[in-house]
Design brief:
Radius of gyration: 29 Å
Distance between the termini: 27 Å
Order of helices and strands: HHEEEEEEHEH
Helix content: 25-40%
Shape: elongated
Largest sheet: 5 strands, mixed, barrel
Length: 246
């Protein structure tokens, strides 16, 4: 033990930080694996034949399932999902209730992104009053449940929101509807429909994991270095004192 004297404070620091750094590294690896599974599921389901709304409601895992819709949009209750950018331009995503006539079910349809360069004027969009046949896919938001921030008793339509909760929207409107957002594919009435599946790819999480593990390794290396350095200093100091006494 005479060859290693790290000191109490460095030891306490390492004991406190090392488990955290290692845990963060493994957490990032886990997130990366989740994203890989998510992307694989997305790729598989996006090439499958669309389901009917009745078939969708009977599906235990609706995420990324394609759906065929036949019905009309409700232009009177539009949601504008704010803070959405595309190619460096600011804008919103337009979401509207859609009544599927075959099932009688309400669904919240995201018609895509549209620009909003001037906040002094409202975004410009149009809504068809005709019966539409279109395809969409189910978007199940990861993480926390979406919440509407506007008070339904005072909010004006179209309603500008930063997050959307379809289930709460149906409650505000006194309707029964599907609990997840549907994102429209290219077709009648669609705006820009190029959504990223995940905001951060698996490779990003791997990179962050490498950084956390590298920090943990550097912490251990510093701990060992200062432990041996302090021991040498102590040894040299002791030897110098012995020489002076002689």
């Amino acid at each position: 033990m005479n060859g290693f004297r790290p000191g109490v404070v460095p030891t306490l620091v390492v004991l406190a930080l090392l488990p955290v750094l290692v845990a963060l590294g493994f957490w990032q690896l886990g997130r990366g694996e989740q994203k890989r599974e998510l992307l694989a599921s997305y790729a598989e389901r996006r090439v499958a034949e669309p389901l009917s709304v009745d078939e969708l409601e009977a599906t235990a895992d609706p995420a990324f399932r394609r759906v065929r819709l036949h019905g009309r949009l409700d232009a009177a209750h539009s949601l504008l999902l704010d803070n959405r950018t595309h190619a460096g331009k600011v804008g919103v995503e337009l979401l509207q209730p859609f009544l599927d006539q075959a099932s009688g079910q309400w669904l919240l349809l995201n018609r895509g992104w549209l620009p909003w360069p001037d906040r002094r004027t409202p975004p410009v969009f149009s809504t068809s009053e005709q019966t539409l046949d279109l395809d969409a896919w189910v978007y199940v938001a990861p993480g926390a449940t979406f919440q509407l921030h506007a008070d339904p008793r005072t909010a004006q339509w179209p309603r500008l929101v930063t997050t959307v909760d379809p289930a709460r929207l149906w409650g505000d409107l006194g309707r029964s509807g599907f609990a997840h957002e549907l994102r429209q594919e290219r077709g009648p009435g669609a705006y820009l429909t190029e959504w990223p599946v995940v905001a951060m790819g698996p490779e990003k999480h791997l990179g962050y994991a490498v950084q956390w593990f590298a920090m943990a390794l550097a912490l251990c290396a510093l701990y060992l270095y200062f432990g041996w350095h302090n021991a040498r200093e102590k040894h040299h100091g002791s030897g110098h004192e012995s020489t002076q006494h002689v």
